[in-house]
Amino acid sequence: MSDFNPEDVIIGDNVRRFREAYGISRAQLAQIFHISVDAVYRIERGQTGLSSSYAYILATKLHCDMNFIYGITSEPALVDLDNMEIIPMTPAAIAGRLRVFAELLEGMTEAEK
Description:
It contains six helices and no strands. It has 113 residues and is mostly helical.
């Protein structure tokens, strides 16, 4: 049995899936992260956790949707930063988002939650 952190395994697998889906080699990702190819391999296997620095690089340099990396969405996607709508986080905007999430939760069964 593995002593790996289960979250690190999920995140590592999603890093690998993102990398493969967009044709990025392990060597290229290692160069972008400024680490060895073996270090990328260990991240992808879940032996090493994904540091916040590498997550930041994935999000900003590779425009990776971090919801996929962290297992929130099931398919890898690139974030289109140029056409992204910026919503200021005012109290009214936060309240509006909370209402949307509450409505989504109301429509879900207990099993889906």
